[in-house]
Design goal:
It is built from 14 helices and ten strands. The chain has about 350 residues and is an alpha/beta fold. Helix 3 packs parallel to helix 5 and helix 11 packs antiparallel against helix 12. The strands form two sheets. Strands 3-4-5-6-7-8-9-10 form an eight-stranded parallel β-barrel, surrounded by seven helices. The chain has a two-stranded antiparallel sheet with strand order 1-2. Helix 8 links the parallel strand 9 and strand 10. The chain folds into two domains: about 240 residues, TIM Barrel (Alpha-Beta Barrel), CATH 3.20.20; about 70 residues.
Length: about 350
């Protein structure tokens, strides 16, 4: 297991991080992952636009009630002054670490020259980084980026160096260009080059979906930590599996079926408490779908579950389905991968 990572005054318990994913890493999901072994989790992307700060969507994303620290909030935008104001706004509401989004490839973000599009405009990118660091004061600032805009424009090392000089405390690199989106395979040579160039912690992100892959990426890049996104959807216990493997070299058995059921039901109740009955019921469908993905009879259950119209019916159906699965399997069967079900419209 690599040494714990320090971000400013915060020494994290382990080097296994939850990636910020729009529409996924809300407070209930972050807390679930932390309970199941993640050492750190970053919020969904929060806009720097003042006119949206009081919207229901943004207020939910900025909800940190009962969340263990350090609380990390990712912000996105294209204007240095607005990003500085968003930094202060989120710190006033409990953020203990500010993360700058320079990695999101979603078209509706990049078309506004935010997210990974900023990597095409290095002067603006550095202006934003400097403004956020200054506005944050003693609060650490981190940066999440891609390897570059496209294969011929990989500028991650150059930008990371300047960001470090500007005062950024940690850099996370997703091993794909903006042009790739989430297609193809992540590459780790660029992440290794960024790590070699910096004195601050560097986090590797992209295609880390198993304990062995986590160890391979850590060894290949020399990174201080790994960040996991899509592989944690429906399988939040991946963090404890990786932690056990890195510490012992042995695979942790899959969780018991009833154990997984209890975690998921607890998550659902937490989810409903944040979103309310109607929105909570609808937004929980994707989490339930991920949880049963690849399991025996999971697709049929997902289709039936999507027709239910109340949170009580969802919990009852999920509990019954897992209880039936437990009659046949003590532990969760190894689920088959289904890339189509884990693709996200937007992911930071």
């Amino acid at each position: 297991m690599p040494s714990p990572v320090r971000i400013g005054p915060y020494l994290l318990p382990n080097p296994l991080f939850v990636a910020p994913m729009a529409g996924v890493t809300d407070r209930p999901f972050r807390q679930l992952c932390r309970r199941l072994g993640a050492g750190y989790a970053v919020s969904e992307m929060v806009t720097s636009r003042k006119d949206l700060w009081h919207s229901l969507k943004t207020s939910r994303r900025a909800n940190h009630e009962g969340e263990p620290g350090p609380i990390a909030v990712q912000i996105a935008g294209t204007d240095a002054q607005m990003m500085a104001e968003a930094t202060v706004y989120n710190i006033d509401r409990g953020a203990q670490i500010i993360d700058i989004n320079m990695g999101c490839p979603a078209k509706k973000v990049c078309n506004k020259w935010a997210g990974s599009a900023l990597m095409q405009d290095e002067p603006l990118a550095i202006e934003i980084v400097s403004a956020v660091v200054e506005a944050a004061g003693d609060v650490p600032v981190t940066l999440k980026m891609r390897t570059g805009w496209c294969e011929s424009e990989k500028n991650a090392v150059r930008l990371a160096r300047v960001a470090q000089d500007a005062g950024v405390a940690m850099v996370t690199v997703h091993g794909r260009t903006r042009e790739q989106g989430y297609k193809g395979s992540a590459e780790y040579d660029t992440i290794a080059a960024v790590k070699a160039a910096l004195a601050i912690p560097v986090v590797a992100n992209g295609d880390i979906d198993s304990p062995r892959k986590a160890r391979e990426v850590l060894q290949r890049t020399g990174a201080d930590a790994v960040m996991i996104g899509r592989a944690a959807q429906g399988r939040p216990w991946i963090f404890r599996e990786i932690a056990h493997y890195l510490a012992t070299g042995e695979d942790l058995p899959p969780p018991g079926v009833r154990e997984a059921r209890d975690w998921l039901v607890e998550h659902l109740h937490d989810h409903y408490s944040l979103y309310g009955e109607l929105t909570g019921m609808r937004s929980a469908r994707k989490h339930i779908g991920w949880a049963v993905r690849g399991l025996p009879g999971g697709e049929d259950f997902r289709q039936r579950m999507n027709l239910l119209e109340s949170t009580q019916d969802q919990v009852r159906a999920l509990t019954g389905w897992f209880d039936a699965l437990a009659d046949q399997h003590e532990r969760l069967p190894v689920a088959a991968n289904d890339d189509e079900l884990i693709e996200q419209e937007e992911q930071a």
